[in-house]
Design brief:
Blueprint lengths: L1 E6 L7 E6 L6 E7 L8 E4 L5 E6 L4 E6 L5 E6 L9 E3 L2 E5 L5 E5 L2
Organism: bioreactor metagenome
Pfam families: PQQ_2
InterPro entries: PQQ_rpt_dom, Quinoprotein_ADH-like_sf, WD40/YVTN_repeat-like_dom_sf
């Protein structure tokens, strides 16, 4: 599976996250987002091997997404545009916003 993030797809302010089969190129799932994202999603895994994506967008939302289904499991408002990808270490995602704030989010 290959994940692509497309900014300003489906409208000027909108975004699209899609998963493609790396052999056939067929779409596995798609997630239409209300706001675009300039950053790449970050993949994180549980000890059992379950995969999740963390994606931040231009409105300041951080999403936790199921990697197999594309379902949004949770999201939080960081208050300002996020242009970079989060850095992840163990169960902590760290990201900065255009509002000059740095957040450390515990992943559960």
């Amino acid at each position: 599976m290959v994940i692509y993030n497309l900014a300003r797809c489906g409208g000027f302010g909108k975004g699209l996250l899609t998963a493609l089969d790396k052999s056939s190129g067929e779409e596995i799932w798609r997630l239409e987002l209300p706001n675009y994202s300039w950053s790449s999603p970050v993949d994180v895994y549980t000890k059992d091997g379950d995969g999740y994506l963390i994606l931040c967008d231009s409105s300041g939302r951080m999403y936790l997404i199921d990697g197999l289904t594309g379902w949004v499991l949770d999201n939080i408002d960081l208050g300002a545009n996020v242009e970079g990808s989060p850095a992840v270490f163990e169960n902590m995602a760290v990201v900065g916003t255009r509002g000059q704030k740095i957040f450390g989010i515990i992943i559960r």
